[in-house]
Amino acid sequence: MRIIDLTPDDETLLRQVAELVVAAFREHSPSYSTIDAALEEVRESLEDGRLSRVAIDDDGTSLGWVGGIPEYGGHAWELHPLAVRPDAQRRGVGSALVADLEQQVAARGGMTLYLGTDDETNRTSLSGVDLYPDPLAHVARIRNLRRHPYEFYLKQGFAIIGVIPDASGPGQPDILMAKRVMPAEG
Q1: What is the 3-state secondary structure of the chain?
Q2: pTM, entire model
Q3: Tell me: the pLDDT tens digits for 41-85?
């Protein structure tokens, strides 16, 4: 496996990435339920200043994809999105993509990598409940009920830094996570 830049001129790879996005998010996120929606997201990842990296196998077939968006003057970058083909999951592809994105962000002077990981399908103890008036108390007691990816990100060194209650609708929070990718100065 190797990780390369996704480029706008490789229509075959763009389509493969869109297909893996649909397959990876099919069960848990209606946002990417069609090839057209996924292709739009993939093409947006190619905008100036953004990072779009794809893991490919020896035959050049896409295994996974990660994007990075500079925010806060480039000091912090949003990881958006991360998708791994279902038959390639649990084989280190996602971890390799995250590590690669961390290196890419640090090389551009970024200090923090952050993400939001929605719970739209009742996969954590934060979903389906009213998180107010004390959302952070709920975060302190979070439990993974059905393979929500927040635990994957914890294993990659991210920390839960907050939650946006009802971000995707009533009882559907967005779990906010971040990690430092470059040592803080002073």
Answers
A1: CEEEECCCCCHHHHHHHHHHHHHHHCCCCHHHCCHHHHHHHHHHCCCCCCEEEEEECCCCCEEEEEEEEEEHHHCEEEEEEEEECHHHCCCCHHHHHHHHHHHHHHHCCCCEEEEEEECCCCCECCCCCCCCCCHHHHHHCCCECCCCCHHHHHHCCCEEEEEECCCCCCCCCEEEEEEECCCCCC
A2: 0.94
A3: 999 999 999 999 999 999 999 999 999 999 999 999 999 999 999
CA angle 156-159-160, nearest 5°?
Answer: 130
Q: Could you tell me the two tokens for 140?
A: 């302190």
Distance CA 43, CA 51 (A): 11
As beta bridge partners, residue 116 has: 176
> How far apart, in whole angstroms, are the C-alpha atoms of residue 74 and residue 127?
32
Q: Which amino acid, residue 50?
A: R
Tokens of 33: 């339920």
